């Protein structure tokens, strides 16, 4: 096991001329954790990873590994290794030569070199293929070799930029599970960049949501999903119904919000008169009277059978809600239903 390093991003900005790729980003990454940087294209993910790896210098701010300031150190002098989306394997070399490349650079040769290569191939689930040409491998196997090549030199931080982006969906989901297991086996701090929220949720100890060069939200997958901090976070991490309104009354623990679906009293804090948005997940709406909050009657204008649930579009006055219901009973399109929910399942976004 390697001892993963702590990473600290201290008020880092990165400007390209007049355009701002990162804007005052501060972030603390625990040693040995699996952190996923999630955001849409252009949000600054690759820039942040390049700054951590030393491929780019910040316009302002500092980057620390444990207690050491590495802001101006080149990649080779940092305890970090980067895996790029296109793997960047050497096509004229065997699997073993590819994995051993970094070891040679570190002057590790002979038996020790062979043993490390063999062990690392075991870690990534490809034992015994040292002598194969990398060009004879499938995409998923090449991805694993790239990972083995990065991990064999025992970096204290592994940086991964859209590492599964080139794989088809099925392989991607499978590699996703394996990446998590490999990380736990090696103990290295992983920082993984993706725009795929399912990938983020399934791998991360901590997800950091980036938007327009700023951190929009961060936390465990559960907390981000159940208690998103902003509208963007609530809709980027899965679907949410967003209901706008105005706070008309408050108690210590609840707010009463006037909305187009009536006055809704839910747990949360906000000041009286404030414009807020209530977010509720599709799976938290019910098409029966089982919830304590009644949102009113609506008409089912569309229904898709997904397997795990049926996904219904429900027209309520001039707005539409998405509701995921259990598959029994099947809800007929065109039917009128009463939509209810539990107060605890609403999140108040200020
Ligand atoms: P992501 O990886 O999330 O798609 P990037 O970090 O690549 O986002 O880019 C963030 C922003 O910075 C984008 O607006 C992009 O156009 C800009 N940018 C990134 N690299 C450069 C560069 N070398 N020169 C100019 N602009 C850049
Ligand atoms: Mg990118």
Would you summarize the structure shown here?
The protein has eight helices and 20 strands.
Characterization of this structure:
This protein is of the alpha+beta class. It has two domains: 7-234, P-loop containing nucleotide triphosphate hydrolases (Rossmann fold, 3-Layer(aba) Sandwich); 239-343, Beta Barrel (OB fold (Dihydrolipoamide Acetyltransferase, E2P)). The chain has eight helices and 20 strands. The chain has helices at 45-53, 95-105, 110-123, 139-151, 169-186, 197-203, 221-226, 231-236, and strands spanning 7-16, 19-29, 34-38, 60-65, 68-69, 80-83, 157-161, 189-194, 206-211, 214-219, 241-250, 254-259, 262-267, 275-280, 285-286, 293-305, 310-316, 319-325, 336-341, 347-349. Strands 6-7-8-3-9-10 form a six-stranded mixed beta sheet, sandwiched between helices. Strands 13-12-11-14-20 form a five-stranded antiparallel beta sheet. α2 (95-105) crosses α3 (110-123), α2 (95-105) packs parallel to α4 (139-151) and α3 packs across α4. It starts with 6 loop residues before the first strand and ends with a strand. The model has no long low-confidence stretch (mean pLDDT 93). The protein binds adenosine-5'-diphosphate (ADP) and magnesium ion (MG). Adenosine-5'-diphosphate (ADP) binds at residues 16, 19, 21, 39, 41-47.
